[in-house]
Amino acid sequence: MRVRTVLKGLGIAVVAAVVAVAAILMSVDVNQYRGVIEEQAEAATGRDLSIGGPIELSISLSPAVVLQDVAFANAPWGSRPEMVTARRLEAQVELLPLLSGEIKVKRLVLVGPDVLLEVNEDGVGNWALDLPASDGAAETAAAETAAETAADEAATAGRQALPDLQLVRVEDAVVVYSDQSTGEKRSLSLAALEAAAQGWNAPLAVQGSGQLDDLSFSLAGTLGPLSDLVNQATVYPVVMKVEAAGATVNVDGRIEAPEEARGIDLGIAVSVPEPTATAQAFNATAPADLPALRLDGRLSDTQGGWAVRNLAASLGDTSLAGALTVTLDGPRPKVTGTLSSPLIDLAALLPSKGGEGDAAGAGQSADTPSRLFPDTPLPLAGLKAADANVELAVSRLVLPDGMALADVTGKVSLSNGRLMVAPASARAGGGTVRAEVTLDASSEAAPAVALTLRTEDVKLGQVLAEVGQGDLIQKGPTDVRLDLTGRGASVAAIMGSLDGGAVVSVGQGTINNDAVRSWTQDIALRLIDSLNPFASKDKYTVLQCGVVNLSLQNGVATSDRGIAVQTPKFHVTGSGTVNLGTETLDMAVKTGVREGAGLATANLANLVRLRGPLTDPSLAVDPLGAARTAVSAGAAIASGGLSLLAEQVIERTAEPEDVCAVALGQAPARASQPPQDQQAAPSQAPAPDNPLDAVKGMGENLGEGLKGLFGR
Q1: Using omega within 30 degrees of 0 as the cis cutoff, is the peptide bond preceding 291 cis?
Q2: What H or E segment, with its residue span, contains residue 677?
Q3: Contacts 24+ apart (CB under 8 A), 292-299
Q4: Structure confidence at residue 258 as a pLDDT band (50, 70, 90)
Q5: pLDDT: is 522 or 667 the higher one?
Q6: Which of 43, 153, 303, 662 is the most exposed, having the fewest neighbouring CB atoms within 10 Å of its CB?
Q7: Nearest CA-CA partner of 318 in 292, 299, 300
Q8: Confidence class of residue 596 from pLDDT cuts 50, 70 and 90?
């Protein structure tokens, strides 16, 4: 007999056997095995499995089993009887590989699953199964030994007994997580989720879409083969793209130990074309019309935390680069690292100042004057949420008002609620700025604030030009010295408790009188212009020096002849108080015409009283101040307030040649009587126009000037 004939006969026999088996299976009502399936599920899990619908069997070389209306019982303490329900469960298995012991599932489809994951008040999840106990200790020990042996054998064999899933698809799924102890509840719905592979050792393609709470998302990517995941391969690749709320996140990298979530090395790329809209989708607030956001970096796990290398972030023209490490095994999360930037433009990122209609603060009516210093509590509780130690270097930092700082360097440290920025330095207006800031909210006491600031040779004209003040002043080298401390949980409380000193000294420069009168909001320049008897005649005022020297105690700033402006033709001196707690001021400012200026000082009403709320002070002129002017506020300040015009007017004090030196405490004031000819008769020089012209318009501009001074 030929071999060919034998093989042909065997082939016919096999086909006949398969047809016979198929015929037998098709004639069997598989629904009679419903009870067996349910009993076996309960024996394995300790919970009821019910199949409410018919069981269907499709016979072919890839038979399919379909179960309908499947329900798996919840824990006894659960909030509903079922933990999982599904409208349809379909599994298709290849028949021939079963002959060699392989289980190849061509398709596993789950339609309409409704999964409830909940945690009770004791922290126990309903997915923790209460397995049936064995009878007797011997049986228990034998079962444990058998389980250990089986586990070892599975590891040795590479766990090849697991099914080879080629396609898994979930449709119309809902997963709800509920924590009864905290009240937290999250909901995940999946329109479709599909994972497909050409085989056990082939990459797994994943794609799907759904909604997490109110946030819609979609994902697509490729994962490593299931065999690598099960056999704990040394490198498990991950490539994934997730889109949600207009943002796109791309992940590309590997995980060395996915079961332990260890050995993570992933490249992360985040793109947010419209950050404002994306923030709103996450129920967060963000300034309107933010430019596109881009974030790239490489994420890896470290001992006790995470690290981000090659960090590169950009928001419009603003960018940031560096490396950060987050440590999680301490009392609080701690962030350490270094960051650098060629440009941080806060003027472009932060909201612009509102119009006059925005002047009233939140909760205030339009008729209620707004505060310069808000009394809303600062979000200081967050300072204890984490620690930090970050070094920052910025080539160019543009502040919200447009002022630019160059070569900004600083070290930011945060420890248990104590925030320190020190040392910090920058270049501004051609000069240097150095500062140290501390905000200590580590104890139950009111938070403490300390500020030390020094500037050297900062050109005031250049700074004003950068903030849009145009041709107001040329040059004007400025030195600032601030040493302030305070306490409080709001800006208003801190300002109302300030102690220390503040000195501002301006050198030679040129003031454009026309520009000052036309549109500046700078209170100091407004004041100089209003008290300048030559402002209407001269286009420019040559500034020789200017000083503001304040001593602060418990929120009250005091100046005893500490305000001074000197020009070749006149000088201005001032004394008084500014109460930062009540936001009021009481100030006396005097103009003096220098010899050879061609103006009769005896006919100049040159003593001005300025007092009232900082947002809307009132102005008064002493008509007798032409001959007798009070210039020292020492006694009045010592007695608790300034009352130069309301009390007795003292004899005129002769002004020294350098009023700025007096303001800085470098020269004493000289007391003397006016010249005899001035006492005998008024000067015959032509009197100026109405003496009040020297301060005309000052009152209506002063409120706006003060608002400009404090950034309102």
Answers
A1: no
A2: helix 676-680
A3: 292/316, 294/270, 295/268, 295/269, 295/270, 296/267, 296/268, 296/269, 296/270, 297/267, 297/268, 298/253, 298/265, 298/266, 298/267, 298/268, 299/253, 299/264, 299/265, 299/266, 299/267, 299/268
A4: confident
A5: 667
A6: 303
A7: 292
A8: low
In order of 396, 565, 663, the CA distances from 479 in angstroms are 21, 15, 14
Tokens of 397: 């930092």
User: Residue 431: enclosing H or E segment and its boundaries?
Assistant: strand 431-440
DSSP character for 571?
Answer: E
Residue for token pair 């985040």 = 270
How many residues would you count in the chain?
712
Distances (CA, A) of 422 to 425, 487, 573, 712: 9, 19, 36, 28
What confidence tens digit (pLDDT) does each residue in 68-127 have? Answer: 898 999 999 999 999 999 999 888 877 666 666 666 778 888 899 999 999 998 889 998
Q: How many whole angstroms separate alpha carbon 417 and alpha carbon 423?
A: 19
Q: 């600083």: which residue's tokens?
A: 410
Residue type for position 175: V
In SS3 terms, 160-175 reads as: CCCCEECEEEEEEEEE
Q: Which whole-number Å values give the CA distances from 451 to 448, 500, 570, in the listed order?
A: 10, 10, 35
The pLDDT score that the predictor gives to residue 102 is: 67
What is the C-alpha to C-alpha distance for residues 707 and 709, in angstroms, rounded to an integer? 5
| Token reading at 708 | 């400009």
Whether residue 609 contacts residue 625, with contact meaning beta carbons closer than 8 Å, is answered with no
- Residues 246-281 as b/e (b if ≥16 CB within 10 A, e otherwise) read ebebbbbbbbeebeeeeebebbbebebebbbebbee
Rg (CA), the chain: 41
CA distance 117 to 95: 35
Q: CA 252, 256, 257, 262 torsion: positive or negative?
A: negative
Residue-wise pLDDT tens digits, 493-504: 999 999 999 999
Compute the distance between CA of residue 406 and CA of residue 630 in angstroms, rounded to an integer.
44
Q: Which residues contact 642 (CB under 8 A, 6 or more apart)?
A: 575, 576, 577, 586, 587, 588, 611, 633, 636
Closest CA to 308 of 269, 257, 260: 269
Is the CB of residue 422 less than 8 Å from the CB of residue 391? no
Global pTM exceeds 0.85:
no
